Fold:
Amino acid sequence: MRTRHIWLTAAVLALATGAVGTARAADEARELEHQFGIVGRDTEEGRRFNDELDRVVGRMTRATGYELKSAILLGGRTEKNDKVINAFALPDGRIYVTLGLMRAIADAANPDAELAFVVGHEMTHVVEKHGRRQARKGTLAMILATILGSATRSQGAQDVLGAGAAAYVSHYSRKDEYAADRGGLLAMRRAGYPLAASVSMLERLQRKGEDSSGFINGLFGSHPLTRNRINRIKQLIADIQAGRISPDGDPKDSPRDRR
Structure:
């Protein structure tokens, strides 16, 4: 009877995956907006940065045909959080850019182009359903935690395994981050932005200290800015410009891209 109960519990959890993913995205949106606040248009800076975000998102979505639920500028809640440099994508199509990031690129030679890489990166996470995949992994991990916890009759074991499952899905995989970097560059190219702006932005933000944010599932959270990542993006740009990667992202005789 106990075994039947364990597997019935697991089956119910498995069937709930889709609903949980949707609810989780809504919960994360509320948490982000509560934690950071939302920058409105009631100040000159707010109007300028919102106009810039709307302008870049509009150009990127028109060029790629991708659709987003919303693009929101986070900030205004606390001075500390307004210094966070990051961007986020949720599985339901919402993307967020922090006030700290907008301020960090404001003095760039081409801030729209630098922002375009951020938007393209986050758009790719949405379009490729990276967040949904992580949510499914989390549900499966929680199922395992429930089964093992029930089988061993240990609530403590179940709690530990559940915490481990949450930590496991708190980051995009390295493969997803690579795909998002590449997708961001390809989206920039389709929209007519200079690809070199992605490198100038990343190098400037690296100098500002990417380790100061430490937020999860953000552009600089799960895989922070390293010299290797920047060099890899430079190589992606070279491959795109040389035609070794097609406009739809498929490699053309590029062993490096297949690895």
Q: What stands out?
A: Residues 25-130+171-258 form one domain. The chain is about 65% helix and 5% strand.
